[in-house]
Design goal:
Elements: H1 3-32, H2 37-56, H3 61-68, H4 71-90, H5 97-121, H6 126-152, H7 156-161, H8 169-174, H9 177-193, H10 197-213, H11 217-235, H12 239-254, H13 258-265, H14 268-275, H15 278-296, E1 316-320, E2 326-329, H16 338-366, H17 372-391, H18 398-414
Antiparallel strand pairs: 1-2
Length: about 425
Protein backbone atom coordinates (compact mmCIF):
# COMPACT_ATOMS: atom_id res chain seq x y z
CA UNK A 1 0.00 0.00 0.00
CA UNK A 2 1.42 3.39 -1.01
CA UNK A 3 2.01 6.07 1.60
CA UNK A 4 -0.67 8.30 0.02
CA UNK A 5 -3.25 5.51 0.05
CA UNK A 6 -2.31 4.56 3.61
CA UNK A 7 -2.75 8.17 4.67
CA UNK A 8 -6.17 8.38 3.03
CA UNK A 9 -7.26 5.14 4.67
CA UNK A 10 -6.04 6.36 8.05
CA UNK A 11 -7.93 9.62 7.62
CA UNK A 12 -11.08 7.74 6.61
CA UNK A 13 -11.23 5.98 9.96
CA UNK A 14 -12.67 2.53 10.68
CA UNK A 15 -16.13 3.23 9.26
CA UNK A 16 -14.76 4.65 6.03
CA UNK A 17 -12.35 1.75 5.56
CA UNK A 18 -15.08 -0.84 6.19
CA UNK A 19 -17.49 0.70 3.69
CA UNK A 20 -14.67 1.31 1.19
CA UNK A 21 -13.60 -2.34 1.38
CA UNK A 22 -17.16 -3.54 0.71
CA UNK A 23 -17.56 -1.04 -2.14
CA UNK A 24 -14.32 -2.19 -3.78
CA UNK A 25 -14.64 -5.93 -3.32
CA UNK A 26 -18.37 -6.36 -4.11
CA UNK A 27 -18.18 -5.89 -7.92
CA UNK A 28 -15.21 -8.29 -8.12
CA UNK A 29 -16.59 -10.87 -5.70
CA UNK A 30 -19.89 -11.06 -7.57
CA UNK A 31 -18.27 -12.18 -10.84
CA UNK A 32 -17.08 -15.56 -9.55
CA UNK A 33 -18.75 -15.90 -6.12
CA UNK A 34 -21.95 -13.81 -6.17
CA UNK A 35 -23.49 -15.66 -3.25
CA UNK A 36 -20.72 -14.11 -1.18
CA UNK A 37 -22.56 -10.78 -1.32
CA UNK A 38 -24.62 -11.76 1.70
CA UNK A 39 -21.65 -12.67 3.94
CA UNK A 40 -19.82 -9.54 2.74
CA UNK A 41 -22.74 -7.27 3.59
CA UNK A 42 -23.30 -8.98 6.95
CA UNK A 43 -19.60 -8.85 7.86
CA UNK A 44 -19.51 -5.15 6.96
CA UNK A 45 -22.45 -4.44 9.25
CA UNK A 46 -20.90 -6.41 12.12
CA UNK A 47 -17.60 -4.58 11.64
CA UNK A 48 -19.38 -1.21 11.71
CA UNK A 49 -21.24 -2.28 14.83
CA UNK A 50 -18.07 -3.44 16.60
CA UNK A 51 -16.20 -0.27 15.59
CA UNK A 52 -18.94 1.88 17.12
CA UNK A 53 -19.02 -0.21 20.28
CA UNK A 54 -15.24 0.19 20.66
CA UNK A 55 -15.55 3.94 20.24
CA UNK A 56 -18.36 4.10 22.79
CA UNK A 57 -16.78 1.48 25.07
CA UNK A 58 -20.09 -0.26 25.40
CA UNK A 59 -23.32 0.06 23.45
CA UNK A 60 -23.11 1.35 19.85
CA UNK A 61 -24.28 4.79 20.91
CA UNK A 62 -23.33 6.45 17.64
CA UNK A 63 -25.49 4.14 15.54
CA UNK A 64 -28.34 4.34 18.04
CA UNK A 65 -28.17 8.13 17.94
CA UNK A 66 -28.20 8.10 14.13
CA UNK A 67 -31.40 6.07 14.11
CA UNK A 68 -32.95 8.19 16.85
CA UNK A 69 -32.22 11.43 14.98
CA UNK A 70 -33.39 10.28 11.56
CA UNK A 71 -37.04 10.07 10.59
CA UNK A 72 -36.18 8.09 7.46
CA UNK A 73 -34.18 5.48 9.37
CA UNK A 74 -36.96 5.05 11.91
CA UNK A 75 -39.50 4.66 9.11
CA UNK A 76 -37.29 2.11 7.36
CA UNK A 77 -36.95 0.17 10.62
CA UNK A 78 -40.74 0.24 11.08
CA UNK A 79 -41.49 -0.96 7.55
CA UNK A 80 -38.79 -3.63 7.66
CA UNK A 81 -39.97 -4.78 11.07
CA UNK A 82 -43.58 -5.06 9.90
CA UNK A 83 -42.50 -7.12 6.87
CA UNK A 84 -40.56 -9.51 9.10
CA UNK A 85 -43.39 -9.77 11.65
CA UNK A 86 -45.96 -10.58 8.95
CA UNK A 87 -43.57 -13.08 7.34
CA UNK A 88 -43.12 -14.70 10.75
CA UNK A 89 -46.89 -14.85 11.23
CA UNK A 90 -47.32 -16.66 7.90
CA UNK A 91 -45.12 -19.51 9.12
CA UNK A 92 -48.22 -20.69 11.01
CA UNK A 93 -49.80 -21.76 7.70
CA UNK A 94 -46.71 -22.01 5.48
CA UNK A 95 -46.24 -25.04 3.24
CA UNK A 96 -42.81 -25.67 4.79
CA UNK A 97 -42.58 -23.92 8.20
CA UNK A 98 -38.81 -24.54 8.68
CA UNK A 99 -38.04 -22.96 5.30
CA UNK A 100 -40.39 -20.09 6.13
CA UNK A 101 -38.55 -19.43 9.40
CA UNK A 102 -35.18 -19.62 7.66
CA UNK A 103 -36.22 -17.14 4.97
CA UNK A 104 -37.71 -14.79 7.57
CA UNK A 105 -34.46 -14.88 9.51
CA UNK A 106 -32.47 -14.08 6.36
CA UNK A 107 -34.68 -11.10 5.54
CA UNK A 108 -34.46 -9.85 9.12
CA UNK A 109 -30.67 -10.20 9.09
CA UNK A 110 -30.25 -8.29 5.83
CA UNK A 111 -32.67 -5.59 7.03
CA UNK A 112 -30.61 -5.14 10.21
CA UNK A 113 -27.38 -5.01 8.18
CA UNK A 114 -28.93 -2.39 5.88
CA UNK A 115 -30.03 -0.31 8.87
CA UNK A 116 -26.50 -0.41 10.33
CA UNK A 117 -24.97 0.70 7.02
CA UNK A 118 -27.51 3.49 6.56
CA UNK A 119 -26.92 4.71 10.11
CA UNK A 120 -23.13 4.56 9.77
CA UNK A 121 -22.94 6.56 6.54
CA UNK A 122 -24.78 9.49 8.13
CA UNK A 123 -21.58 10.29 10.05
CA UNK A 124 -19.17 10.00 7.09
CA UNK A 125 -17.63 13.32 6.07
CA UNK A 126 -16.71 14.65 2.63
CA UNK A 127 -13.10 13.45 2.56
CA UNK A 128 -14.08 9.95 3.63
CA UNK A 129 -16.88 9.97 1.07
CA UNK A 130 -14.35 10.68 -1.66
CA UNK A 131 -12.14 7.83 -0.41
CA UNK A 132 -15.09 5.41 -0.55
CA UNK A 133 -16.02 6.74 -3.99
CA UNK A 134 -12.52 6.04 -5.27
CA UNK A 135 -12.69 2.50 -3.88
CA UNK A 136 -16.08 1.90 -5.50
CA UNK A 137 -14.92 3.24 -8.86
CA UNK A 138 -11.80 1.07 -8.72
CA UNK A 139 -13.93 -2.01 -8.00
CA UNK A 140 -16.38 -1.25 -10.81
CA UNK A 141 -13.59 -0.60 -13.34
CA UNK A 142 -11.75 -3.79 -12.35
CA UNK A 143 -14.99 -5.78 -12.66
CA UNK A 144 -15.57 -4.25 -16.08
CA UNK A 145 -12.10 -5.33 -17.16
CA UNK A 146 -12.55 -8.91 -15.88
CA UNK A 147 -15.94 -9.27 -17.55
CA UNK A 148 -14.64 -7.85 -20.82
CA UNK A 149 -11.74 -10.33 -20.80
CA UNK A 150 -14.10 -13.22 -20.04
CA UNK A 151 -16.37 -12.21 -22.92
CA UNK A 152 -13.52 -11.78 -25.38
CA UNK A 153 -11.61 -14.93 -24.38
CA UNK A 154 -14.47 -17.44 -24.05
CA UNK A 155 -14.66 -17.30 -20.24
CA UNK A 156 -11.00 -18.26 -19.92
CA UNK A 157 -10.73 -17.48 -16.20
CA UNK A 158 -14.00 -19.22 -15.32
CA UNK A 159 -12.88 -22.30 -17.27
CA UNK A 160 -9.78 -22.46 -15.07
CA UNK A 161 -11.96 -22.33 -11.96
CA UNK A 162 -14.69 -24.76 -13.07
CA UNK A 163 -15.24 -27.55 -15.59
CA UNK A 164 -17.44 -25.93 -18.25
CA UNK A 165 -16.78 -28.34 -21.13
CA UNK A 166 -20.23 -29.93 -21.17
CA UNK A 167 -22.39 -26.80 -21.17
CA UNK A 168 -23.39 -24.52 -24.04
CA UNK A 169 -22.01 -20.99 -24.60
CA UNK A 170 -25.37 -19.56 -23.48
CA UNK A 171 -25.09 -21.45 -20.21
CA UNK A 172 -21.46 -20.41 -19.75
CA UNK A 173 -22.22 -16.74 -20.00
CA UNK A 174 -25.44 -17.01 -18.00
CA UNK A 175 -23.16 -17.78 -15.05
CA UNK A 176 -22.29 -14.09 -15.03
CA UNK A 177 -25.88 -12.89 -14.63
CA UNK A 178 -25.50 -12.27 -10.91
CA UNK A 179 -22.15 -10.54 -11.34
CA UNK A 180 -23.56 -8.31 -14.07
CA UNK A 181 -26.54 -7.55 -11.83
CA UNK A 182 -24.29 -6.41 -8.98
CA UNK A 183 -22.18 -4.37 -11.40
CA UNK A 184 -25.26 -2.70 -12.89
CA UNK A 185 -26.76 -1.79 -9.52
CA UNK A 186 -23.47 -0.47 -8.16
CA UNK A 187 -22.99 1.64 -11.27
CA UNK A 188 -25.56 4.19 -10.03
CA UNK A 189 -23.59 5.09 -6.86
CA UNK A 190 -20.34 4.92 -8.87
CA UNK A 191 -21.76 7.51 -11.28
CA UNK A 192 -22.79 9.65 -8.31
CA UNK A 193 -19.24 9.45 -6.96
CA UNK A 194 -17.93 10.98 -10.21
CA UNK A 195 -18.00 14.74 -10.54
CA UNK A 196 -17.94 15.41 -14.29
CA UNK A 197 -20.75 14.82 -16.78
CA UNK A 198 -18.33 13.41 -19.39
CA UNK A 199 -16.79 10.86 -17.05
CA UNK A 200 -20.26 9.83 -15.89
CA UNK A 201 -21.35 9.37 -19.48
CA UNK A 202 -18.27 7.30 -20.35
CA UNK A 203 -18.70 4.96 -17.38
CA UNK A 204 -22.43 4.61 -18.02
CA UNK A 205 -21.87 3.76 -21.69
CA UNK A 206 -19.14 1.21 -20.85
CA UNK A 207 -21.30 -0.63 -18.32
CA UNK A 208 -24.37 -0.53 -20.58
CA UNK A 209 -22.40 -1.81 -23.58
CA UNK A 210 -20.94 -4.69 -21.55
CA UNK A 211 -24.35 -5.71 -20.21
CA UNK A 212 -25.82 -5.60 -23.70
CA UNK A 213 -22.96 -7.74 -25.02
CA UNK A 214 -23.71 -10.58 -22.59
CA UNK A 215 -26.68 -12.93 -22.71
CA UNK A 216 -29.57 -11.98 -20.47
CA UNK A 217 -32.69 -10.21 -21.73
CA UNK A 218 -33.79 -9.13 -18.24
CA UNK A 219 -30.57 -7.19 -17.64
CA UNK A 220 -30.72 -5.67 -21.10
CA UNK A 221 -34.30 -4.56 -20.42
CA UNK A 222 -33.18 -3.14 -17.06
CA UNK A 223 -30.57 -1.00 -18.82
CA UNK A 224 -33.18 0.30 -21.25
CA UNK A 225 -35.69 1.11 -18.51
CA UNK A 226 -32.98 2.77 -16.40
CA UNK A 227 -32.08 5.03 -19.32
CA UNK A 228 -35.73 5.94 -19.85
CA UNK A 229 -36.11 6.69 -16.14
CA UNK A 230 -33.03 8.95 -16.21
CA UNK A 231 -34.38 10.86 -19.22
CA UNK A 232 -37.80 11.16 -17.59
CA UNK A 233 -36.27 12.44 -14.36
CA UNK A 234 -34.21 15.00 -16.28
CA UNK A 235 -37.21 16.19 -18.28
CA UNK A 236 -39.79 16.10 -15.48
CA UNK A 237 -37.81 16.74 -12.33
CA UNK A 238 -40.75 16.98 -9.92
CA UNK A 239 -43.26 14.73 -11.65
CA UNK A 240 -40.98 11.79 -12.54
CA UNK A 241 -40.87 10.14 -9.08
CA UNK A 242 -44.65 10.43 -8.79
CA UNK A 243 -45.17 8.90 -12.23
CA UNK A 244 -42.72 6.05 -11.56
CA UNK A 245 -44.25 5.45 -8.13
CA UNK A 246 -47.75 5.34 -9.61
CA UNK A 247 -46.65 2.81 -12.24
CA UNK A 248 -45.07 0.61 -9.57
CA UNK A 249 -48.13 0.82 -7.30
CA UNK A 250 -50.47 0.00 -10.19
CA UNK A 251 -48.26 -2.91 -11.29
CA UNK A 252 -48.15 -4.42 -7.79
CA UNK A 253 -51.92 -4.11 -7.39
CA UNK A 254 -52.72 -5.68 -10.76
CA UNK A 255 -49.86 -8.17 -11.19
CA UNK A 256 -51.95 -11.23 -10.16
CA UNK A 257 -54.34 -10.39 -13.02
CA UNK A 258 -51.70 -9.92 -15.72
CA UNK A 259 -50.40 -13.49 -16.36
CA UNK A 260 -53.78 -14.83 -17.58
CA UNK A 261 -54.01 -11.94 -20.03
CA UNK A 262 -50.44 -12.61 -21.18
CA UNK A 263 -51.13 -16.30 -21.78
CA UNK A 264 -54.20 -15.40 -23.85
CA UNK A 265 -52.29 -12.93 -26.04
CA UNK A 266 -48.79 -14.48 -26.36
CA UNK A 267 -47.99 -17.63 -28.34
CA UNK A 268 -45.15 -19.02 -26.23
CA UNK A 269 -44.05 -21.53 -28.91
CA UNK A 270 -43.68 -18.79 -31.52
CA UNK A 271 -41.96 -16.53 -29.01
CA UNK A 272 -39.42 -19.22 -28.13
CA UNK A 273 -38.73 -19.98 -31.78
CA UNK A 274 -38.21 -16.29 -32.59
CA UNK A 275 -36.05 -15.37 -29.60
CA UNK A 276 -34.26 -18.72 -29.13
CA UNK A 277 -34.80 -18.12 -25.40
CA UNK A 278 -36.83 -20.83 -23.72
CA UNK A 279 -36.75 -19.00 -20.39
CA UNK A 280 -39.18 -16.34 -21.65
CA UNK A 281 -41.89 -18.87 -22.42
CA UNK A 282 -41.10 -20.75 -19.20
CA UNK A 283 -41.54 -17.63 -17.11
CA UNK A 284 -44.91 -16.90 -18.66
CA UNK A 285 -46.00 -20.40 -17.62
CA UNK A 286 -44.56 -19.84 -14.12
CA UNK A 287 -46.40 -16.52 -13.82
CA UNK A 288 -49.68 -18.08 -14.97
CA UNK A 289 -49.39 -20.89 -12.41
CA UNK A 290 -48.47 -18.40 -9.66
CA UNK A 291 -51.51 -16.24 -10.49
CA UNK A 292 -53.76 -19.30 -10.19
CA UNK A 293 -52.38 -20.11 -6.74
CA UNK A 294 -52.64 -16.45 -5.63
CA UNK A 295 -56.35 -16.50 -6.52
CA UNK A 296 -56.82 -19.35 -4.03
CA UNK A 297 -55.34 -17.42 -1.06
CA UNK A 298 -55.22 -13.71 -1.95
CA UNK A 299 -55.38 -12.39 1.61
CA UNK A 300 -53.06 -14.63 3.62
CA UNK A 301 -50.87 -16.16 0.93
CA UNK A 302 -49.34 -19.62 1.13
CA UNK A 303 -46.72 -18.65 3.71
CA UNK A 304 -43.20 -17.25 3.59
CA UNK A 305 -40.91 -18.97 1.05
CA UNK A 306 -43.73 -21.30 -0.03
CA UNK A 307 -43.01 -20.89 -3.76
CA UNK A 308 -40.36 -23.60 -3.61
CA UNK A 309 -42.90 -26.20 -2.43
CA UNK A 310 -46.28 -24.90 -3.64
CA UNK A 311 -48.73 -27.74 -4.43
CA UNK A 312 -48.53 -28.60 -8.11
CA UNK A 313 -45.41 -26.55 -8.69
CA UNK A 314 -43.23 -29.54 -9.54
CA UNK A 315 -45.59 -30.73 -12.27
CA UNK A 316 -43.83 -30.87 -15.64
CA UNK A 317 -44.98 -28.92 -18.70
CA UNK A 318 -43.72 -28.85 -22.29
CA UNK A 319 -41.60 -25.80 -23.05
CA UNK A 320 -40.46 -26.78 -26.56
CA UNK A 321 -42.58 -29.43 -28.33
CA UNK A 322 -41.01 -32.03 -30.59
CA UNK A 323 -39.80 -35.65 -30.72
CA UNK A 324 -37.63 -34.92 -27.67
CA UNK A 325 -39.58 -32.11 -25.98
CA UNK A 326 -37.92 -29.76 -23.54
CA UNK A 327 -39.73 -29.94 -20.21
CA UNK A 328 -39.87 -27.61 -17.23
CA UNK A 329 -41.62 -27.30 -13.87
CA UNK A 330 -44.63 -25.06 -13.41
CA UNK A 331 -42.94 -23.31 -10.49
CA UNK A 332 -39.25 -24.09 -9.91
CA UNK A 333 -38.14 -22.56 -6.59
CA UNK A 334 -39.50 -19.03 -7.12
CA UNK A 335 -41.73 -16.96 -9.38
CA UNK A 336 -39.05 -14.89 -11.19
CA UNK A 337 -41.17 -11.88 -10.27
CA UNK A 338 -40.93 -10.27 -6.85
CA UNK A 339 -44.45 -8.74 -6.69
CA UNK A 340 -45.96 -12.09 -7.69
CA UNK A 341 -43.92 -13.79 -4.99
CA UNK A 342 -45.05 -11.22 -2.42
CA UNK A 343 -48.68 -11.96 -3.30
CA UNK A 344 -48.19 -15.72 -3.53
CA UNK A 345 -46.45 -16.13 -0.19
CA UNK A 346 -47.51 -13.15 1.94
CA UNK A 347 -50.88 -12.23 0.45
CA UNK A 348 -52.29 -8.73 0.33
CA UNK A 349 -50.64 -7.45 3.57
CA UNK A 350 -47.18 -8.63 2.49
CA UNK A 351 -47.52 -7.24 -1.03
CA UNK A 352 -48.64 -3.88 0.38
CA UNK A 353 -45.74 -3.73 2.86
CA UNK A 354 -43.10 -4.70 0.31
CA UNK A 355 -44.47 -2.22 -2.23
CA UNK A 356 -44.38 0.34 0.56
CA UNK A 357 -40.66 -0.33 1.11
CA UNK A 358 -39.84 0.24 -2.57
CA UNK A 359 -41.98 3.38 -2.76
CA UNK A 360 -40.40 4.62 0.47
CA UNK A 361 -36.95 4.31 -1.13
CA UNK A 362 -38.17 6.21 -4.19
CA UNK A 363 -39.61 8.96 -2.00
CA UNK A 364 -36.28 9.34 -0.19
CA UNK A 365 -34.45 9.71 -3.51
CA UNK A 366 -36.97 12.29 -4.70
CA UNK A 367 -36.59 14.25 -1.46
CA UNK A 368 -32.80 14.55 -1.57
CA UNK A 369 -31.27 17.99 -2.01
CA UNK A 370 -29.16 16.76 -4.95
CA UNK A 371 -29.04 18.43 -8.32
CA UNK A 372 -31.20 17.25 -11.19
CA UNK A 373 -28.52 14.98 -12.72
CA UNK A 374 -27.65 13.22 -9.47
CA UNK A 375 -31.28 12.60 -8.60
CA UNK A 376 -31.91 11.28 -12.13
CA UNK A 377 -29.02 8.82 -11.80
CA UNK A 378 -30.38 7.54 -8.49
CA UNK A 379 -33.86 7.14 -9.99
CA UNK A 380 -32.33 5.26 -12.93
CA UNK A 381 -30.59 2.87 -10.54
CA UNK A 382 -33.86 2.38 -8.64
CA UNK A 383 -35.72 1.61 -11.88
CA UNK A 384 -33.08 -0.93 -12.96
CA UNK A 385 -33.33 -2.69 -9.60
CA UNK A 386 -37.13 -2.92 -9.79
CA UNK A 387 -37.05 -4.31 -13.35
CA UNK A 388 -34.55 -6.99 -12.32
CA UNK A 389 -36.71 -7.81 -9.29
CA UNK A 390 -39.68 -8.32 -11.62
CA UNK A 391 -37.85 -10.66 -14.02
CA UNK A 392 -35.08 -12.51 -12.17
CA UNK A 393 -34.12 -14.14 -8.88
CA UNK A 394 -36.12 -15.03 -5.81
CA UNK A 395 -37.50 -12.19 -3.73
CA UNK A 396 -35.80 -13.43 -0.55
CA UNK A 397 -32.43 -14.61 -1.88
CA UNK A 398 -29.90 -13.29 0.61
CA UNK A 399 -27.26 -12.27 -1.96
CA UNK A 400 -29.89 -10.28 -3.90
CA UNK A 401 -31.21 -8.50 -0.81
CA UNK A 402 -27.63 -7.76 0.28
CA UNK A 403 -26.89 -6.27 -3.14
CA UNK A 404 -29.96 -4.04 -2.88
CA UNK A 405 -28.92 -3.01 0.64
CA UNK A 406 -25.34 -2.14 -0.34
CA UNK A 407 -26.46 -0.24 -3.45
CA UNK A 408 -29.03 1.71 -1.43
CA UNK A 409 -26.49 2.61 1.26
CA UNK A 410 -23.95 3.81 -1.31
CA UNK A 411 -26.55 5.85 -3.19
CA UNK A 412 -27.55 7.45 0.10
CA UNK A 413 -23.87 8.16 0.81
CA UNK A 414 -23.19 9.95 -2.47
CA UNK A 415 -26.41 11.95 -2.64
CA UNK A 416 -26.35 15.19 -0.63
CA UNK A 417 -27.91 14.49 2.75
CA UNK A 418 -31.47 15.32 3.65
CA UNK A 419 -32.11 18.32 5.88
CA UNK A 420 -31.64 17.58 9.58
CA UNK A 421 -34.28 15.08 10.66
CA UNK A 422 -34.34 15.53 14.41
CA UNK A 423 -37.69 15.50 16.12
Amino acid sequence: MSLALRARASAAGPDGCIVAFSAFIAPLLSIYAPLGMAPLFTAGALALLVADMLRSRGLPRGLIAAVRDSNSLRQFALLGGLVCLWALATTAWAVEPPQALLATGQVFGVACAAAVHLAAIRRIDGATRRFIGAALLAGVICALAFLAVELADDAAIARQLSDLRDISPDQVFSRYNRGLTVLLLLTAPALLALAGAITRLVLGVLVSALVMAYYGSSLQLAVGVALLAVLLALALQRAAPWLIGAVIALFVVTVPLLPPLTVQTVDTDTLTARTHNVSIAHRIIVWQFSAERIAEKPLTGWGMNAARAIPGGKEKVVLIPGPAPVMGEKLPLHTHNAPLQWWLELGLPGAALMAGLWLFALRLIAGQSAGRAARAIAIGGFAAAFVIACLSFGAWQAWWLATLGLAAALIALFLPPLPQETT
